[in-house]
Amino acid sequence: xxxxxxxxxxxxxxxxxxxxxxxxxxxxxxxxxxxxxxxxxxxxxxxxxxxxxxxxxxxxxxxxxxxxxxxxxxxxxxxxxxxxxxxxxxxxxxxxxxxxxxxxxxxxxxxxxxxxxxxxxxxxxxxxxxxxxxxxxxxxxxxxxxxxxxxxxxxxxxxxxxxxxxxxxxxxxxxxxxxxxxxxxxxxxxxxxxxxxxxxxx
Length: 202
Description:
Elements: H1 14-22, H2 31-47, H3 59-68, E1 70-75, E2 80-85, H4 88-95, H5 98-105, H6 124-142, H7 149-162, H8 165-172, H9 177-181, H10 190-201
Antiparallel strand pairs: 1-2
């Protein structure tokens, strides 16, 4: 008996991100979690980070990143820190969340994104489930398979459109270029192919 092919996760583009940011708080969700989710998905959209890499980001780190225009994060998969560049548009999006920062962090410098309202670290599985539940309405609305990893898919896929795969590998922190290659879903349109041929052949 053949296994059914599961639908691959789709990227979360700007249209889907905007949909998520416009949605109202679910009745079962606290204001604390709602504000955190809005901060988290914005960082995911702007950086392409893995969702679990955000748990230990503090208000001090995030506030500093808005000045330095990069976010320094620890990658458990590669066991090292790396700098994630923030573009001007990313800075603009992150700066638009002042209300969320005030409500969630309350100017506590060492307060982590992964903290519960009582100051203990959220379990990884609960953290992931919470973010995915926030994304679920968009999956239903657009009739596509989405998860927290869809932000990373979008980020890497767009980089691969304009950069060599080896450069993208360095930017996103993959150990192997083969891992980066798995994200290469970009299929150029007929017009784009024609334009490229015209530019390189004549």
